[in-house]
Amino acid sequence: MSLVAYMQDPLLMMLSSILLGQFIGKINFKGFKLGSAGALFVGIGMSYYVTDYLLRYNRSATFLRPEIPSAVFQLSLMGFIASVGLLASQNIRGIIKENGYRFMVLAAVVTGSGAMTAWGFTRLLAHANKISILGTYPGALTSSPALAVALELAKKLGDSGEVQVGLGYTISYIPAIATIVLFVQLLAKGHKDNGTSHKALQEPTVEKTADFNIIAFAIVGVVGTIIGGFSIPLGSFGELSLGATGGVLITALVLGDRKKIGSLSFDMDKRQLGVVRDISLNMFLATVGFNYGYAALSMIKETGITLLAVGATTTIISVGIGYLIGKLLGLSTVNLIGGICGAMTSTPGLCASMEALGNDEVTAAYGAVYPFGLFFKILMINILFRL
């Protein structure tokens, strides 16, 4: 196989990103490790340099950049979300009962502070395109559903509104992921330095559970995807839909909490679910990096750092204010990390937090806050476009 043929094979690129990412993720610098997020950053780098090389090699107008198929992305995302939901389901009732209203407030604060920051930049940067700045909001909070709403609203405005929203989203998305990953690493390090011990992520407590059941796992995926496809009308604000990710997560938490339906067990072996989780996680992160990396870095080079700075600032303020309010609300560090990632509906943040903390406990808080975060982001993006 020639070098060009290798570079043009998206699945080989994904596997190479995972392989190199594993080596880089194990590098320990003063207590910080990227872990599986190494696949994300390797994917970004490979995306840019591979595409740049292929563009110079093939100057044809019909050249298509290699891209990992969306079906692989969706499958890996569903596998990761379903497995972590089933793993965390044993704690979900107690966490919601204890922190329900706190999670709702946290979601409102994280999404609201981000929206106010984006609106502030539209006033401060009068020379910049307002629509592209608003496009940084869903990117800064890593929200595909909010992006879909923004695109729909921008389409009504005409004048290349959709293109401007896509530009802002793409530029701010990758820095947002990097910011969230670093944030959870910092919080987790402080949590461990305080002497709090947890069960190892790779070595969960062995309990009497059923073996991994592909039928039960597939049911979680099918039912969750169907639920995620339903939309709740919100009048002039559009529609609210959990999407496949939210639907699968909620389904996994509910069925995992129930444990059994007839002879079908959803209380599966933790080690076996952990294998599915880790494989899906690395595939997902490598795909995000490879599919978004070139576009994001190229746009930053072409448009300058203004939108990059706007998106990064929006993410930092959302996370920072969310952290302060979460502490005032009395949330534990684990629930605070999971809650902030859930408010941002950030799957990469959830991935990083599990590895940084060394357990799956954050998933219950993530799942409890996720619906609130989704609702408030859709509400905020509608308000922003009406201001």
How would you summarize what this structure contains?
By secondary structure, the protein is mainly alpha-helical.
Number of strands: 4
Structural class, by secondary structure, is mainly alpha
Unreliable segments (pLDDT under 50, ≥5 consecutive)? 197-206
Placed side by side, the strands forming the largest sheet appear as 1-2
Number of helices: 15
Strand content: under 5%
Helix content bin: over 70%
Largest sheet: 2 strands, antiparallel
Round the mean pLDDT to the nearest integer and report it: 80
**What is the CA-based Rg, rounded?**
20 Å
Overall, the morphology is globular
Task: Give structural attributes.
387 residues, mainly alpha, two-stranded antiparallel ribbon, 15 helices, globular
Question: What does this protein structure show overall?
Answer:
By secondary structure, this protein is mainly alpha-helical. It has one domain. It contains 15 helices and four strands. The chain has helices spanning 3-7, 10-25, 37-57, 70-88, 92-124, 130-140, 144-157, 161-193, 214-229, 243-258, 270-303, 306-328, 333-343, 347-357, 362-386, and strands at residues 232-233, 239-240, 260-261, 264-265. The strands form two sheets. Strands 1-2 form a two-stranded antiparallel sheet. A two-stranded antiparallel ribbon has the order 3-4. A hairpin with a 5-residue loop joins strand 1 (232-233) and strand 2. Helix 5 (92-124) packs parallel to helix 15 (362-386). The termini are far apart. 53% of the residues are buried.
